[in-house]
Amino acid sequence: MAMTDSTDPTSGTTMVSALFPDAACAIADLRAMLSMSAGGLINLSKVSDTTLWNKLMAAEAEAERILKTFFGAVEVLPDNCDPSEIAAFEAAGTRYTLVSAFDYDPDLFRNDAWGYMRLPFAPIQQLHSVKIVFPAPFLQDYTVPEDWIRLDSKYGDLQLVPTTTAPVTPVGAYAVAMWGGTVYPQAVQMRYRCGLTNASGTVVTSFAQHWNDLVDVVQRMAIMKLLRMAFLPTSASISADGLSQSKSFDYKVWQDGIDEVLKGGKGANGGLFVQIHGAMGLVG
Description:
With about 280 residues, the chain is an alpha+beta fold.
């Protein structure tokens, strides 16, 4: 939905920012950064607050995709959930995403796997439920007891360790699947809340995770989007009355600086991506 009120850049839009809760302050900061970084490259008086806000929101969305996480709380639902659940979240203005369920495979519980599954989005703020849904009508869906669940919230690694506190009988759905040697496609459904906590850095305590570099790089991404929209030439010169002036703008240098913060320097396994998800690698 387009913004129409020039006095309020958030008027007429449903976009909500996790990084910039105070739109007016965020726009003022971005305009100040532009006055320093862009210099005389663009005429800032022609750039409206609404345009600046739109670029910030576009940069925030792009950064979420690059870093494969959400900057605020997002509810994760099975993609075959009841439409009424989705309607309730939309009515409440709650962000959500839909994911496919995991296949149930008896190998999940062989050797030292202990039901290992890596959830598609992390970090995990709260795991609501793990349910095994069977295709046969005579098998009752099984909600995994909470004390069976071992969860690494930071990286989204989940394992199931059966305990004696919850009964497992030969006729129980969970036991039938575990001992039956049968693979059930998309049978393990998760409901959870994920996303970074305090991504905007507005809550400062000795225990808080600080993401000030995330806020900074998204602002730089927004500036890059604005300068690209202006179709700036890589270089230009003006000569008049014996005086000359030259300007240059190197998109690649700007982009390299942004990529270094997001992904680490060239040849390095670092940056914000590793800070969020941990080091990635293959084991041969």
